């Protein structure tokens, strides 16, 4: 009989070109290099990323399907706007999915996952202390990748990714209202709970992270 023990390590999948393209475009959207409402020009993305048209088109299709990019009549593809008024409901939805993801990751992560999760969170702390926003955002993205792989729930991951990107972009756009070190601390609490395999603590820590994001959003909107 095939042993499907949850803690057995699986080889890490190699990122496809379309996944690399998705991450590259995500970073540009989050850091406002691709500004809300701006047109998506394929030739410019090829030049900016050094990637081919085929993986870029696949990444753009994925982003269009989850609302990060919009198809506008007579305008083509544009980067979606930041909807501040709708941001609280976005966090409310993300909170529910994050609880499932972190609990699953705490239960299913391999030893390598657990180590990498803490390493990524530690890089966030270091970047926060240096006030290095680019490194902070890169470490945040890496942390999400490892946690999502560890949770082994593709449908939950697919649902949460556009919410994460929108939250990350919102935070970047209004970062003057935020506390980067507090954000890093919240991520580390989630990471440590997952690393310990403590599902209840992981859910509590994820709620703490969402509380931080909600408080930040209220400062911006209020």
Would you kindly provide a brief summary of this structure?
With 222 residues, the protein is mainly alpha-helical. 70% of the residues lie in helices and 4% in strands.
Name its key features.
disordered N terminus; single chain; Four Helix Bundle (Hemerythrin (Met), subunit A); globular; Arc Repressor Mutant, subunit A; 222 residues; two-stranded antiparallel sheet; mainly alpha
- Cα radius of gyration in angstroms: 18 Å
Q: What's the number of extended β-strand segments? A: 2
- Helix fraction, binned, reads 55-70%
Query: DSSP strand (E) fraction?
Result: under 5%
- Outline type: globular
Structure report:
By secondary structure, the protein is mainly α. It has two domains: 63 residues, Arc Repressor Mutant, subunit A, CATH 1.10.10; 138 residues, Up-down Bundle (Four Helix Bundle (Hemerythrin (Met), subunit A)). The chain contains nine helices and two strands, in the order H-H-H-E-E-H-H-H-H-H-H. The protein has a two-stranded antiparallel ribbon. It is globular. The N terminus is likely disordered.
Walk me through the topology:
Blueprint: H1 17-30, H2 42-49, H3 53-65, E1 69-72, E2 76-79, H4 87-108, H5 111-129, H6 133-151, H7 154-173, H8 180-196, H9 199-221
Antiparallel strand pairs: 1-2
């Amino acid at each position: 009989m095939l042993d499907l023990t949850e803690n057995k390590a699986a080889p890490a999948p190699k990122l496809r070109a379309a996944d690399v393209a998705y991450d590259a475009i995500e970073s540009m959207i989050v850091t406002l290099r691709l500004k809300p409402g701006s047109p998506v020009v394929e030739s410019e993305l090829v030049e900016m990323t050094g990637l081919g048209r085929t993986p870029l088109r696949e990444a753009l299709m994925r982003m269009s399907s989850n609302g990060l990019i919009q198809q506008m009549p007579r305008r083509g593809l544009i980067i979606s706007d930041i909807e501040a008024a709708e941001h609280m409901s976005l966090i409310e939805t993300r909170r529910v999915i994050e609880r499932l993801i972190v609990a699953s990751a705490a239960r299913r992560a391999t030893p390598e996952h657990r180590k990498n999760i803490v390493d990524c969170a530690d890089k966030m702390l270091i970047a926060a202390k240096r006030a290095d926003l680019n490194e902070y955002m890169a470490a945040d993205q890496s942390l999400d990748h490892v946690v999502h792989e560890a949770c082994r729930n593709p449908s939950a991951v697919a649902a949460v990714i556009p919410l994460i990107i929108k939250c990350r972009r919102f935070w970047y756009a209004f970062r003057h209202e935020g506390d980067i070190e507090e954000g890093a601390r919240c991520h580390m609490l989630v990471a440590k709970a997952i690393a310990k395999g403590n599902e209840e603590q992981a859910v509590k820590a994820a709620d703490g992270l969402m509380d931080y994001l909600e408080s930040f959003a209220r400062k911006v909107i209020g």
